[in-house]
Amino acid sequence: LSWRHKLAVLLSDQIISAYSHVEVTNPFYGYHFPYKDILSEKSFVFLQHGVTYNDISKSIGKYKRNIKLIVASSPAEKEAFISPRYGYTEKNICLAGFPRYDFLKSSPKRIISIAPTWRRYLFNGFIPKEDRWVLKPEFNNSNFYKSIMYLVNNERLISAAQKYNYSIYFVPHSVFFPYIDQFEVRKEVNMFGTEVRYRDIFNYSDLLITDYSSIAFDFAYLRKPLIYAQFDKDE
Question: Which of 124, 179, 204, 216 sits a CA distance of 20 to 30 A from 35?
Fold first, then answer.
């Protein structure tokens, strides 16, 4: 985070971002008190980076963030944002859809992609200068890690994929990229990191396995099948 970035934020009228986390949108995070009055005057426009289908009102509700404008991808999403749960009105919502859907293509190459989302409780905050979330030391003993590794390295799944000539790709969420070496996968399983583009995953995959990630909507938009592996729904 350069001084130019911080100066631009202080001088701006609006802050426009695809992410709502203050750790990401506020370059003064952690020592923002001297700039509190200035920052409170900024209008925040939330572009989103995925379809919102879970209740995240505790994170972005009007009485939490007071967002000036939210770009919605569908009428159902718009209706959710203007419900009492979120507290916004029609003037706060722009029903524009996601332009990235215009670039989605489908050229399946007999690939099964396993792409779970992340869990915030597995991290100890965010380091803006390094642009990364801090992974907790006990990550490898978590239910999330053990369940994902059990699925990715499952003997029955790998054998079935080989029998029917499919390749298996494991795609960790991008917040895990700095810790990619934490995931131990069998040699029969390919693992994607920073070199992959999500639209390529949607393009080349025949089947997507995820838990709660909104990339399911991108995949469904291409009319491809997906499987939900929600092993920790109660948690």
Answer: 124
Contact of 226 with 219, CB cutoff 8 Å: yes
Give start and end residues of each alpha helix (H) in the chain. Answer: 3-11, 22-25, 36-40, 57-60, 75-81, 143-152, 155-163, 198-204, 215-221
Question: By CB neighbour count within 10 A (0-12 exposed, 13-18 middle, 19+ buried), where does 50 fall?
Answer: middle
- The span from the CA of 109 to the CA of 166, in Å, is 8
pLDDT at residue 65 greater than cutoff 90: no
Q: What residue type is assigned to position 216 of the chain? A: A
Note the Cα 178 to chain centre separation in Å.
Answer: 15
Smallest CA-to-CA distance from 174 within 2, 19, 17 is with: 19
Question: pLDDT digits over 22-38, tens only?
Answer: 888 888 877 778 888 88
Beta bridge partners of residue 123, listed in sequence order: 135
pLDDT in tens, 188-228: 999 887 677 888 999 999 999 999 999 999 999 999 999 99
Residue type, 15: I
